[in-house]
Amino acid sequence: MHYLTAALALWLGLSFCAQAAEPITLGLNYPRTGSYKEEGLAQMRGALLAIDEINAAGGVLGRPLRLSSKDTASRPAKAVKNVEKLSAEGAAMLFGGSSSAVAIASGKRAAELGLLYFGTLTYSNDTTGKDGHRYMFRECNSAWMSARVLGQYLNKTLPDKRYFYITSDYTWGHTTESSLRQTTNSVDVAIHPGLKVKFPGAHLADYQDVLTQAAASNAEVLALVLFGEDLVRAMRIAKDLGLTERMQVVAPNLTQSIVEQAGPGLMEGVVGTEPWTWRVPALEKSARGEAFVKTFSERYAMYPSSSAASAYSIVYQWADAAKRANSLESEALIKALEGHRYQLLKGQQEWRAFDHQNVQTVYAVKVKPREEVLKDPLKQDYFEIVGRLEGAEAAPSLAEWQAERKAAGQPLTLQ
């Protein structure tokens, strides 16, 4: 009987250990194909690095992490189905983006399933604005935050210029154009015209058409509210039409991947914004950020982009919240995240409680001349930081956020 009891105790102990060591699944809902696939690949790289580091340090609550990923192709309907599949796999939380329409649709379905959703690259104001809810946390900045730092720079260097807008026809494009028009005093469409381009699925002929109309205008600033491969295609046509020589090109949200795809020669002088570049940790004196740049560069033979940094930060922030809450339950994690301030890859950041927007410094950047880029060992020193705005100044206030929610018929608190 004694041996039976001991054997049973041993079996129970082993079963408990096996259960405790069961991996925690994190679900990455990202574009592996489509116009934003390079930004998606960067997210994958950042997430995998974070997971490997956390596992090497003992995991989360005694359990290792594993990543399960699904391709959204930047299509909301497909992304929603991915959320359902990842939930069925037992994912503890979901993250991803590159298309705000994807992040918004995915976040809503995740909320219905009781899962937290962290937006990576989702710049639309709507993500944490009129479409915001308790289960959505946005790691990157909003369109309004980009517009404020960009408007500050453009108003100083190019005051009273005529703008021509070419915009992706979906939520990110709409809110980004609207925000930039407000901060650059280019609201009057009679003076500062604009055209929309289908997303996803625009053809080269569509870009040729709108850019030809831009060329026929008297505009001095060409605002390309496009992203990923769509921006690259438009830039090539703009170059052929001579627009890059006679207009200042503005692309509100730039990434390392975009410049790499187009080439620094084509993108030289383009102005936009970034929430993070690999130069930021040194600028902000972030030892942890500099270590991330070094580790990522050694692992992948390239510098980390803002896309990679976003996914990396999300995994770490979720893991930190789980440890502080001693729980994987979404409600406990929401409480742990709301109002939480931290420093990771740059200066001070905060998960703001009332809208779940990550409040952080935003940078205006300008693409360097090709000869300067080529001086760097990895040939990826693309951006000159030409402007900087603290998160508290860039982010909309509570009153502004509530006014937006009220106008959309939404509750004045997250539900």
Topology:
Layout: H1 2-20, E1 24-30, H2 37-56, E2 65-71, H3 76-88, E3 93-96, H4 100-112, E4 117-119, E5 136-138, H5 143-157, E6 163-168, H6 171-183, E7 194-197, H7 204-215, E8 221-225, H8 228-240, H9 243-246, E9 248-253, H10 256-262, H11 264-267, E10 271-274, H12 280-283, H13 287-300, H14 306-325, H15 330-337, E11 341-343, E12 348-351, E13 358-359, E14 362-367, H16 370-373, E15 383-389, H17 391-394, H18 398-407
Parallel strand pairs: 1-2, 1-3, 3-4, 4-5, 6-7, 6-8, 8-9, 9-10
Antiparallel strand pairs: 10-14, 11-12, 12-13, 14-15
3D structure, described in words:
The chain is an alpha/beta fold. The protein folds into 2 domains: 9-143 and 285-361 and 395-407, Response regulator (Rossmann fold, 3-Layer(aba) Sandwich); 147-280 and 364-394, Rossmann fold. The protein is built from 18 helices and 15 strands. The strands form 3 sheets. Strands 7-6-8-9-10-14-15 form a 7-stranded mixed sheet, with helices on both faces. Strands 2-1-3-4-5 form a 5-stranded parallel sheet, sandwiched between helices. β3 (93-96), α4 (100-112) and β4 (117-119) form a beta-alpha-beta unit. α2 (37-56) runs parallel beside α14 (306-325) and α8 crosses α10 (256-262). It is globular, with a radius of gyration of 22 Å. The termini are far apart. Mean pLDDT is 94; it is low at 1-19. Belongs to the leucine-binding protein family.
What distinguishing features does this structure have?
415 residues, alpha/beta, Rossmann fold, 7-stranded mixed β-sheet, 5-stranded parallel β-sheet, 47% helix, disordered N terminus, BCAA_transport
